[in-house]
Design a protein that fits this description.
Helix content: 25-40%
Largest sheet: 2 strands, antiparallel
Distance between the termini: 30 Å
Number of domains: 1
Shape: elongated
Strand content: 5-15%
């Protein structure tokens, strides 16, 4: 489960400003980004970014830009037409 919490850096230690639902000595991955004055107004979806990073970390082989370009070049017509055809009717 991904959690996003505000923290304060004091005396060399990050101190969360709310309780964390973690087991004692549980290892976690921490991503640091400076927060705006009001963290709730941030436009970046940190939860999605964390999810995407976790997905990439689990991949056996992370595709290169060239790999992606090669795959995209196989799409006939425009990208929007392809997406619409794959999406189907909603």
């Amino acid at each position: 489960m991904v959690q996003q919490v505000e923290a304060v850096y004091e005396n060399g230690v990050l101190r969360p400003l709310q309780p964390l639902h973690l087991k004692e000595a549980e290892k976690v991955l921490v991503s640091i980004s400076p927060g705006p004055a009001d963290l709730r107004s941030a436009t970046l979806d940190h939860q999605f970014v964390a999810y995407a990073r976790a997905e990439v970390a689990e991949m056996a082989k992370v595709p290169t830009l060239e790999d992606v370009q090669q795959q995209l070049s196989t799409i006939k017509g425009s990208m929007s037409e392809f997406i619409i055809s794959e999406r189907g009717d909603y």
